[in-house]
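Page 47, continued from p. 46.
Same chain as before, 187 aa.
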Amino acid sequence: MHLTRSFLLLLIISGVADGGYIEQDKSVLMPLALGNYWTMNFRAPNVSGEMDRGELTIRVITDSLVTGDQWFYIVGGLLDDMWWANQSNGLNVRGDKYSGLLFKYPAEKGDIYPAIANSKVLVVETNRQIRVPAGTFSCYEYLHYDAGGNIRFFLAPDIGIVKVLFYGGEESAVGEVELIEYSTKYQ
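Result:
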């Protein structure tokens, strides 16, 4: 299940999409529209065990209709082959290797559901205050877990990913991603 943990780390480091504008009549977990971007600091161990540090910018670059749903293509990191969509059950992804629900939204504290890459997800909190360089946000906290370790995601509705903590079977985080700047809009 090391592959699952690596996939989710790459998924977050890889990006958010830069697609077309969509009309929004309700809150979404991650606003997807052309021109949206999220810049983040990251700290994560590399394959040799050393700590990599840097900055990445995730961007929505295009959109497409797939079976009547609007999907947005996201780039900005190591895994650029994913389409993202806000659907009635939450934030979903679609790619060559993985497709399905990533983050249930809306969700209730204590919800548990299966997610991509054979992981399970626990909704730990729906109103966790998280402070990062970009500000303080009220976030949903999701715990993705499998035999290879855990990843905690903090997403603020109508903002997107605010913070990610990686646990490789450790009690303390071995890596993190934090939002430093973002621009989101709807038409």
